[in-house]
Design brief:
By secondary structure, this protein is α+β, with helices and mostly antiparallel strands. The protein contains four helices and eleven strands; from the N terminus they run βββαααββββββαββ. A six-stranded mixed sheet has the order 1-2-3-4-5-6. A hairpin with a 4-residue loop joins strand 4 and strand 5. The protein is elongated, with a radius of gyration of 25 Å. Keywords: Membrane, Transmembrane, Transmembrane helix.
């Protein structure tokens, strides 16, 4: 399992069947597991949209071409069939628009971690959201069975159950754990006249007097 990223500290490596993608944004970053389901989510949504449209056409076709229907003879039979086909079409369209790709958003501006599903158009739907202050711990849970993937989990104040973020190799998840854990630390306020340099705070130079 490899990590694909635009962040310099994570590096960029050649993709393999299982990978973790990290995408930088102007407010933070988004990461997702490169599972087969996630990689094919857009294709599944397109097929669902086509299937939904097909069912809608069949539902309406009963009424525009009644002579072509050799099975449904009465209006009530056509109505029941149309209702069933339209319901199936609606379900497929709902699947295609709901979003099947699972993403984790780390918002550094609002200091929130969000679990989302994203559709093929890039529209995200928030499933769960946690303030950084609510998260008491973040850890990689290794499987006791050889060959099974590890899990990146977090624990929230007031909740006894762990929240699973994603699965993958322990090595790849450890890289993500290190970055997210660093971002979860409280932001230290800096008073006017001081500036932060690395992990230290020193008096800032007045304008025009910097060396």
């Amino acid at each position: 399992m490899t990590v694909l990223s635009t962040h310099p500290s994570l590096g960029v490596t050649r993709a393999r069947p299982m990978h973790v993608c990290v995408c930088e944004t102007n407010w933070g970053y988004v990461f997702r597991s490169g599972t087969t389901f996630n990689d094919r989510a857009a294709l599944i949504e397109r097929v669902s949209a086509i299937a939904g449209l097909t069912f809608f056409v069949l539902a309406v076709g009963h009424w525009f071409f009644p002579d072509a229907d050799v099975v449904m003879h009465t209006p009530m039979e056509r109505l029941a069939s149309s209702f069933g086909l339209a319901s199936a079409g609606l379900a497929f369209v709902w699947i295609s628009e709901r979003g099947l790709r699972h993403d984790i958003q780390v918002d550094l501006e609002r200091r929130r971690l969000r679990l989302t599903t994203t559709n093929r158009r890039g529209k995200a739907r928030i499933v769960r959201s946690f303030a950084f202050a609510e998260i008491t711990s973040l850890f990689v849970k290794r499987s006791a069975e050889p060959g099974r993937p590890a899990r990146l989990c977090l624990r929230v104040a007031g909740n006894r159950w762990d929240v699973e973020l994603m699965r993958g190799s322990a090595a790849a998840l450890a890289v993500l754990h290190g970055r997210i854990a660093g971002d979860l630390r409280p932001v230290m306020p800096v008073a006017d006249g001081w500036e932060k340099v690395g992990h230290k705070i020193r008096p800032s130079e007045p304008d025009g007097e910097a060396a």
